[in-house]
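To whoever is on call:

I kicked off a structure prediction for a single chain this morning and the downstream step that reads the tokens threw a length-mismatch warning. I double-checked the sequence; it's 331 residues and nothing unusual in it as far as I can see. Pasting both halves so you can look.
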Amino acid sequence: MKPKTSPPGRENPAMAYDSTRRRVVLFGGAQLGTPLNDTWTWDGANWTRQKPNRSPSPRQFIAMADDPVRGRVVLFGGSDYTYTSTYHNDTWEWDGSNWLPVLTGSAPSARRGYGLVYDAPRQRTLLFGGEHLITSYNDTWEWDGRAWSRVATTVAPQPRRGHGMLYDSARRSTIVFGGRLGGQLAHLSDTWELATPFLPLVTNASTVSLAAHRTQKFTLDAGTRHANKIYFLLGTLSGTTPGIKLSKTVTLPLNNVLDPYLAITLAFPNSPLLVRSLGRLGASGRGTAQWTAIPQIPLTLIGKRFHHAFVVIGTDPFDMASNAVRLDLIF
């Protein structure tokens, strides 16, 4: 291909496909030892240099992952040059025109050469491994758009950097291959698979603004064995533990401590507040629903935490209950 314009030559940049805007995004890298922080997009025929108001500092040995649900490309960490350089543990998101710095509480330690992929069913960005100076890591973290959380694993690959990593959507698992131990010349040739816990209920946001009339979108996935069955999405303001025991094997992770919101979601399904809360799952056992910050919501609920979960109605009469997801209402 012979595009009219191209980024200057470089090594160790980050690239990801921005599915929201249907562009490939390139950031950073290094040219002759000088780290870069320019951003370019590829439309299939030509490269265009972007001019964001803010950008991450110059760096290389980085990775990016596309979050199609939130419409962001996520970037983490990296370093600006060689082993004696500055290492980063900051998080940035590309929204199509600007890089947005994300302030987080806990986060992976500063590193480079890690793997970064998007786990679509769980709507999380996963990070594994990397190195700082000659110390390699084998910890796993996930990003939900608001905070980093460390993923507990009973067994993990050896610490490494520069490994290959991708998400296998058909098998719902993350694959890691190869890499190198920090400070060593030997390369690894092992293959690992991280099967993260499957969550039947996921959302696109954990915080919703009342003033902006924002929404929280739910994706329900009960699996093919529950295809075409009836589901019922309910909510509570009273937390999730111990939940409501519906049968010997099914417990809905929503509390009912004289909870008025649970009563509303039970008595008024498919309302403007909670759209498609009662319906039938598709042939693949999936469905969607939506919570909307309608003007009728009392201001006294600002700052409150909601939880939602769904049940599948069958012959038991309840065949399963999903996990609970939170919703924090802000002004």
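Update from on-call: the warning came from a stale cache, not from the record. Cleared it. Sanity check on the structure: The CA atoms of residues 231 and 309 lie 10 Å apart.
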